[in-house]
Design brief:
The chain is α/β, with parallel strands linked by helices and 369 residues long. It folds into three domains: 2-132, Orthogonal Bundle (Globin-like), CATH 1.10.490.10; 141-228, Elongation Factor Tu (Ef-tu), domain 3 (Beta Barrel), CATH 2.40.30.10; 244-363, Nucleotide-binding domain of ferredoxin-NADP reductase (FNR) module (Rossmann fold), CATH 3.40.50. 41% of the residues lie in helices and 19% in strands. It has helices spanning 2-13, 19-33, 46-61, 66-79, 87-105, 111-132, 211-218, 254-267, 288-297, 320-326, 341-353; strands spanning 141-151, 155-162, 173-178, 186-189, 200-205, 225-228, 244-250, 273-279, 301-307, 333-338, 361-363. The strands form two sheets. It has a six-stranded antiparallel sheet. The chain has a five-stranded parallel sheet with strand order 9-8-7-10-11, with helices on both faces. Strand 10 (333-338), helix 11 and strand 11 form a beta-alpha-beta unit. Bound molecules: 1,4-dihydronicotinamide adenine dinucleotide. 1,4-dihydronicotinamide adenine dinucleotide binds at residues 173, 189, 205, 207, 250-253, 255-256, 278-280, 308, 319-321, 338-340, 342-343, 346, 364-366.
């Protein structure tokens, strides 16, 4: 596998700087050759371009960790049932993707590279196709929005209930689509552990460019319908572990941390749990009272909040990974990290500096980490 990874990295370096053009070429070729595939993709393609590349780069980087890659690709295949992707589509995509890479790599492209991309693509496609064989599962779930509350300037917390049985584990995420932005699916973590009434909670922050998040914060109402794809992700509790737990959450990365807390509340008696929560501004700590009530009730939970971008803030200040190391040492703990890709990356490298074995760190970055 190491050889294959090297060959892929080497060949990718030929096109990396022109990756935008590779992706443009790929989609142009795909939609010309197979016009019916156009309907599987969003009307607005900008975000999709980044996501395709991010998924490929992430998969190639994970070749050295087959178990994790397997889980990721099966989950992705299951998720892609929402697009009505069929097994034959994978071969069509392969022809166009390899063509785009080959054309942009130029004269240094060779048969070894071609074979390596063929092999790795077939391997990934086989796992995604296997993941999509979902038995009686629907391609996506219809869910009705039950409540929608604005928490501060730009955050909304909403709940919904899927109309068909929906099974997931605390810490997982789903991609969802709302009627306000049809065919634009975005991933959000479920912010609760499974509940008897089947309801799901989501936390969304509207940021400048995120049209779906903006619609979910500003336009979604109780009674609206959502589509949810199959749950994905591996940031789930290691219930066999006896180690204490550190949850590191940046912004709405609180959602999966809160879901894991909900799970721990059900059975934990013996593990100390430390929640590190970072926001840019002091007024960003939505859900504060709710979490404080949990900490009052369960003495095993401690919460550290830190603000990174407000110089006069009276409480703890700094990037959350710096705050985490200030509160160390952390020798014998399990870590769960959620937030933006740069925040997750910064935290992972800090944990690596602290010599925490990677097997004790779980995260699910929505973009490449
Ligand atoms: N499962 C997961 O990993 C989840 C990830 N998310 C992602 O989390 C992000 C949350 O965004 P917002 O609420 O706008 O939070 P934000 O971007 O405002 O950041 C909040 C915290 O992250 C820290 N941070 C931001 N950039 C950083 C960097 N480069 N290095 C170190 N720390 C950094 C900030 O200092 C602050 O403490 C979104 O990108 C969302 O997609 C959300 C939910 C679940």
């Amino acid at each position: 596998m190491a050889d294959l990874t090297n060959v892929l990295n080497e060949s990718w370096s030929l096109v990396e700087e022109r990756s935008d053009r590779v992706v443009e070429h790929f989609y142009a070729r795909l939609f010309l050759a197979y016009p019916r595939l156009r309907d599987l993709f969003p009307v607005e393609m900008a975000a999709q371009r980044d996501r395709l590349l991010a998924a490929i780069v992430r998969a190639v980087r994970q070749l050295g960790d087959p178990a994790r890659l397997d889980e990721y690709l099966r989950g992705l295949g299951r998720d892609h049932r929402k697009y009505d992707v069929r097994p034959e589509h994978y071969a069509q995509v392969k022809v166009c993707l390899l063509d785009a890479i080959r054309v942009h790599a130029g004269e240094r492209w060779n048969d070894v590279y071609e074979q390596a991309w063929n092999d790795v693509y077939d391997l990934m496609a086989a796992k995604m196709i296997a993941g999509a064989e979902g038995g009686d599962e629907p391609p996506y779930w219809n869910a009705e929005v039950l409540s929608h509350e604005r928490r501060g300037r730009d955050v909304a917390v909403f709940t919904c209930r899927p109309r068909q049985p929906f099974t997931f584990r605390a810490g997982q995420y789903v991609s969802l689509e709302c009627a306000h932005r049809p065919r634009e699916w975005r991933t959000y973590s479920i912010a609760n552990s499974p509940r008897p009434d089947g309801t799901l909670e989501f936390h969304v922050r509207a940021t400048g460019t995120g049209w779906v998040s903006s619609a979910l914060v500003r336009r979604l109402r109780a009674g609206d319908l959502l589509h949810l794809a199959a749950p994905m992700g591996s940031m789930i509790l290691d219930t066999a572990s006896r180690r204490d737990v550190v949850l590191v959450a940046g912004g709405t990365g609180l959602a999966p941390a809160k879901a894991l807390l909900g799970e721990l509340v059900k059975y934990n008696r013996t593990r100390w749990v430390h929640l590190f929560r970072g926001e840019r501004q002091g007024d960003g700590f939505y859900d504060r009272e709710h979490l404080d009530r949990i900490a009052e009730k369960y003495p095993w939970l401690s919460i550290v909040r830190a603000v990174s971008d407000e110089p006069g803030y009276p409480g703890e200040r700094g990037a959350i990974h710096d705050v985490l190391s200030r509160h160390g040492p952390w020798r014998d703990h399990d870590f769960y990290v959620a937030g933006s890709a740069p925040m997750v990356r910064a935290t992972l490298s800090r944990l690596a500096e602290m010599r925490i074995p990677p097997t004790r760190v779980r995260y699910d970055a929505f973009t490449d980490c």
